[in-house]
Every structure is written in structure tokens, then in C-alpha cells.
Design goal:
63% helix, mainly alpha, 155 residues
Length: 155
């Protein structure tokens, strides 16, 4: 079987599988869920005295790895850069679409991912990168997830 981008599959199978917009929103839900899960694990690790960078190495050498842990955390979070190019407001829009496609009682992770992103947006304000969701975890726990040599973003 040859590789087909998810959007191409959704367009070809629209009547059976759903629209390309739904596929995009659901994919971004999974991405946001992975991103939030890594933040929770790094927060728990930091509370246990394990440096976030070291815990990230463990995750990425193990079965828990994801695109979020392998790409976004090293480049955007540990560095304090927070500039992946995908805005938190756009992530929230996709999460709202994904939530409308699921029953919250049957999909509690969907609701939790949406709530986490919405809470981070309320804390940080508009115009933020979606990777700054981590700052909500840092704020709530008082534990830094960025490398100590990385200055916190002030704007």
C-alpha cells in the first residue's frame, strides 16, 4: 500500500470517512493531547527530581515517544523559544471542531485537551504559539520545564 497524506484520503473517501476539515481537526486533537501528556509527564518528573531534558530523552528512547516529544519539546519548549508557527487560537478552533465531533462522556480526553488549551489561552492571552500550553503547567506547578539557561518569554 502506498502512502497517502491524510487530507488526500479524507477527500477521496469523504462520504465514508468524513470531511478533510474534520480529519484535520481530529489530527490536531491527537497532537494537542500528545503535547499535553508530555507536559504532564515532564511536570511529574520535575517534581520527582528528574530534569525535564533527561526525562524527554527517556521518553524518546521508549514507547511513549511522539512527534511532540521528538520535535516540539526539544526545539520549542526546552529552549523557551515557543515559536512553532501554529497559533494557540488556531489550535483552539480545531479542538472545538474535534469536540463537536465527539460525545464528551464517551471521549473525556477530548474535553480535557480542549480545557487545557482554553485555560492556557486565558492565562497567556491572544497571539501565542500553541507550544506555550506548557507555560500553564509551569504556572500551576511552579516547576520549570525549560532548560534553566533558557530565559522565560516575557511577551
Amino acid at each position: 500500500m502506498c502512502f497517502r497524506p491524510p487530507g488526500a484520503f479524507a477527500r477521496r473517501r469523504r462520504s465514508v470517512w468524513g470531511s478533510a476539515d474534520a480529519a484535520k481537526a481530529l489530527n490536531n486533537l491527537l497532537s494537542a493531547t500528545n503535547f499535553a501528556a508530555v507536559a504532564e509527564i515532564l511536570t511529574a518528573a520535575a517534581a520527582a527530581g528528574i530534569a525535564p531534558a533527561l526525562m524527554l530523552d527517556v521518553i524518546n528512547a521508549s514507547t511513549g515517544r511522539s512527534q511532540a516529544s521528538e520535535v516540539k519539546y526539544p526545539a520549542e519548549v526546552l529552549t523557551g523559544r515557543f515559536a512553532s508557527g501554529f497559533g494557540m487560537d488556531l489550535m483552539l478552533k480545531d479542538l472545538a471542531i474535534a469536540a463537536s465531533l465527539t460525545d464528551r462522556a464517551a471521549a473525556p480526553v477530548t474535553g480535557a485537551a480542549h480545557d487545557i488549551a482554553r485555560d492556557a489561552r486565558a492565562l497567556l492571552g491572544p497571539g501565542r504559539d500553541h507550544t506555550e500550553i506548557v507555560r500553564g503547567y509551569e504556572n500551576a506547578s511552579g516547576l520549570p520545564l525549560r532548560n534553566r539557561r533558557s530565559p522565560p518569554r516575557t511577551t
